[in-house]
Design brief:
single chain, alpha/beta, TIM Barrel, ten-stranded parallel beta sheet, two-stranded antiparallel sheet, 14 helices, oxidoreductase, oxidoreductase activity, acting on paired donors, with incorporation or reduction of molecular oxygen, F420-G6PD/mer, Luciferase-like_dom
């Protein structure tokens, strides 16, 4: 099992922390460094900056938000990043959620399956170096609207270094995960539980089979909050804020995929209480509502002596690349990962 590190997005990590962690991951032999995107941090610029301070590690968008860019713009960004990094790009894509798509980007959160499929198809077509044409329900290129002067264009310059830039999808629902198995090179689940791996990966395997592909064609790369401390209770406390943020604040009451997932795992009372308190403005109360059982299900909270066993659970669950988001002594978490997976 390979490992990578997510440097997330502001304000969870400051810029100097992100650079330091990327450099450390590069030195330690990590597989990849992942940069997230939110309404405050743009991932393409940050990945470009990290390409200048790293040498070997893969540089990964985890994720670029689909409503933020036209698909051809994403293809151009991907080609640029792959070129300046010497062919190290992994391109993660995702729709985000309705609050961000509609509230920040002004893009209706509709037809998620179709929008994702068409977007991936256009990105791949643009990266191919051929003239770009596309006739879909969400996008038509060239557009039939406007002045009528549009004509099929192909990307200028040398394009990407890699013949095929790997595309990962950050999706979680059964139908979107199945589609990921059909069309993507990798899957980026969040709040992945090794104990529920068979249930979580079943749609992915169905999609892979439906497309006539092999399991090896799709990299399973869960993004997991992680903390390592001599005291297990302290390690759990270090991941509480990020878990409470996603379980409590991502989405709306009755429409939060992460809360729904925790309910499926059997931790409904804890997750729903966390959500209620978070939405009421009580963040500390939301964090306190998380039981140790829920934390241990969806995060890595370990001591130096228990870390290897916890990582083994992910390997046994079929994880190909474990992407950790470190909390507490962030560099220490990376050192511990490198030591445990050496």
């Amino acid at each position: 099992m390979r490992w990578g590190v997510s440097v997330m997005y502001w304000p969870w990590m400051a810029w100097d922390e992100q650079v330091a962690l990327a450099r450390r991951a590069d030195e330690l032999g990590a597989d990849s460094v992942w940069v997230a995107e939110g309404y405050g941090q743009e991932a393409v610029a940050l990945l470009g900056a990290l390409s200048a301070v790293t040498e070997r590690v893969r540089l990964a968008a985890g994720i670029l938000q689909i409503p933020a860019r036209a698909p051809a713009a994403t293809a151009t960004a991907a080609a640029t990043l792959d070129r300046i990094s010497g062919g190290r790009l992994l391109l993660g894509l995702g729709l985000s959620g309705p609050q961000v798509s509609e509230g920040w980007y002004g893009v209706p959160f509709t037809a998620p399956l179709r929008r994702t499929r068409e977007y991936v198809e256009i990105v791949r077509a643009a990266l191919s170096g051929e003239r770009l044409t596309y006739d879909g329900r969400e996008w038509t290129i060239p557009t039939p609207d406007g002045l009528g002067l549009g004509k099929p264009l192909k990307m200028l310059g040398p394009g990407a270094v890699q013949e095929r830039v790997p595309i990962y999808l950050g999706v979680g629902g059964p139908r979107t995960v199945a589609q990921c198995g059909e069309i993507a090179d990798g899957w980026l689940p969040f709040l992945f539980s090794p104990e529920h791996a068979d249930e979580l990966t079943a749609p992915l395997l169905d999609g892979i089979a439906a497309a006539g592909r092999r399991r090896a064609d799709v990299t399973v790369a869960p993004m997991v909050p992680a903390a390592v401390h001599d005291d297990l209770g302290t390690a759990r406390d270090l991941v509480r804020p990020i878990l409470a943020f996603y379980l409590g604040g991502m989405g709306a009451k009755g429409r939060n995929f992460y809360t729904d997932l925790a309910v499926r795992y059997g931790h409904g009372p804890s997750a729903l209480t966390c959500q209620d308190r978070f939405l009421a403005g009580d963040r500390r109360g939301a964090e306190a509502a998380l039981t140790t059982e829920l934390i241990d299900t969806v995060a890595i909270a370990a001591t130096p002596s228990t870390l290897e066993k916890r990582l083994g659970a992910f390997a046994d669950a079929g994880v190909d690349t474990l992407v950790v988001t470190p909390f507490g002594d962030r560099a220490g978490v990376l050192d511990a990962m490198a030591g445990a997976l050496a």
